[in-house]
Each structure stands twice: as structure tokens, then as C-alpha cells.
Amino acid sequence: MSEPIRINKYLADGHYCSRREADRLIKSGNVFLNNRPAQLGDKVGDQDVVRVNGRDRGIRNNRKYILMNKPVGISVNKNKEHNVFDLIDPEEKVFPVGEMDMKDEGLLIFTNDAFFSKRLQLPKYTLDQEFVVEVNKDLSRSDIIKLQNGIPLKDGITKPVKARQIDMRRFAIIPSESKPDLIRRMCAELGYEVEAVVRTRILTLKMISTYPTGKWRNLMNTEIEELKKAAGINLAEKPKTQKPWTANKKKKLERNRIASR
Q1: Which of 31, 45, 69, 163 is most buried, judging by how many CB atoms fall within 10 Å of its CB?
Q2: pTM for this prediction
Q3: 2 and 63 Cβ atoms separated by less than 8 Å
Q4: Integer Cα distance of 43 and 241 in angstroms
Q5: What is the homologous superfamily of the domain 128-202 according to CATH?
Q6: Could you confirm whether 48 is annotated as catalytic?
Q7: What is the CATH number of domain 63-126+210-240?
């Protein structure tokens, strides 16, 4: 669930009853949140327990988290021909996290958890990612050092990065921003033409030799938890409950009564 939701929506999402019926049950004292009577406006998080008439009412976790090895020449835009959604089971209603150019390949995360996706794309929570880049001619050690220290571009000097040479024409780079286009611009400034960019790692999710392009799998719970932690989502934190609207209404009426004297 990730982001806390109102308790009436929680019960409706769990196909127990409508929101209006949920409100009626809450008012009648038949709904309990963490062993106390629930109030209108209360919010429910992943760690909370909701009971109606003495029975647990947990929502089936319908959040999807998928990892794909995206092939080159495939778009992440659903409206374009030859896109990544052709490779995923049609029943998996997910969308890619972030952008990836058609000419790039490698690891790509998909989800239907909008809150999780937005957090991962905030600069504050940029995930540690590694790319392997192949260029059109032999690399020099001095150019690898230049990449590490920052390259002057038209819009400023790039931030220092981690980079290491793999062989004569390939190097690995861990940029401060997940932007393959920026990697191409850095290489062009040094006189290289990029022939391939492959994202080989996202945090601890790594490319393996038996992971062919086009293949995808569901992420394991431990992997999801690690990604959420990196995105600043505290899984153990209990959401604060809101005061019922009836109490707020009474306070407002009292203020209006005093002001009208």
C-alpha cells in the first residue's frame, strides 16, 4: 500500500463494502483500528490492523514490482510501436520507473505503485546505478580520469562520477544522475561516439549472464523493501491518525458562536 489511505477507502479497496457503508460501520463502533475503535478520517498504513465485527480485514496486496532486462530498439512509450509492454503479461498493469531511450538496454523497473515510483525519481532519492558503455575507439586512461573528475559541457561541468575501464573500448560508470543521454554527451566531449549503453545494476539488483534481454521477473519482497528504504519510505512507521470530523466541526461551531457574541 505504501502511502496511508483513509479507513473507509481501505475497506472499499478490500471489496468489503462501499465507502458510505464503511462510514456507517465506523460510526456504529463496529470497526477497530489497532485494537481501538476507529474514527472517521483515520488513516491506515501497511503495518496497521483493521477489524470489522471482530474479523481481520486486510487488503490483498495488489502492488506489482517488476524487473526487466530491456532490449535495445524497444520503446518505453506504450503508444509507440515495438514497446516494452509487448514483452510483459497483459494482466500486469504496470508502468516503467523513469525514462530509457530506445537505443539503450539493461535493467528497468516497472510498478503500479505511483507513490513508490515518484519517490524513486526525486533527485534526493536517486538510486545507485551502474552502466557499461561501449565506444567506437580505444579508451585512454587520461579520459577515464576526466570522466571521474567532471566534463565541461555547455550547461556546466558534470558532477564527479565513479568510472573504471573494463577493456579497450568499454568502461563502467556510476553517474550521479540516471541519464544515459548525459553519458553520451560526456563521451562526445572527449571525442568518442557511444555504440552501446547498458544499465547493469540498480542498487543491489544486478545483471547476470543468464538474464537474456526481454526477460522480466517479479521482485522479491526483500528487494522491494530495500528499494523503498532507499526511496525514504519508512515501512515501520505508523501513520498519525486524524481527529474525527465531528470533533473538528464542534470546534468550528464553538469558535463561530464565540465570534458572534
Answers
A1: 31
A2: 0.67
A3: yes
A4: 6
A5: Alpha-L RNA-binding motif (3.30.70.1560)
A6: no
A7: 3.30.70.580
